[in-house]
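DM from R.C. (forwarded with permission)

"hey, sorry to bug you on a friday — could you get me a structure for this? deadline for the figure draft is monday and I only need the backbone to look sensible"
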Amino acid sequence: MARATIARSTASLAGVELATQAANSADDMQFQNNGAQLLYVDNGSGSAVNVTIPMSTDKHGRTGQKVVSVPAGDQSFIGPFDAELYNQGGFVHVDFSVSTDILVGVLSLQS
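My reply, with the result:
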């Protein structure tokens, strides 16, 4: 199944209202990345959520993943994401251990 795409909000001197949406752990998610994006996770659930960001295969064939735990009731910005390490077809893939009461958004520091 195709990953759900997280919409980006672009920061400016005039300010920005960050668009958020419900996390989707069933289909997993992705967002477009040029290296200047931050992933926002608002954990409104009663337990921690693990946010897993798979890395793309590097020039030596290595792969890996970054796992960030966001505690219950907390909010976190994760990133930025180096395009060479994280982009897969221009997108960063994001997997959530749970999605109930989790909101996500992407803040772009440049367009």
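R.C.: lifesaver. The two ends are 28 Å apart (CA to CA).
me: no worries. The chain has a mean pLDDT of 94.
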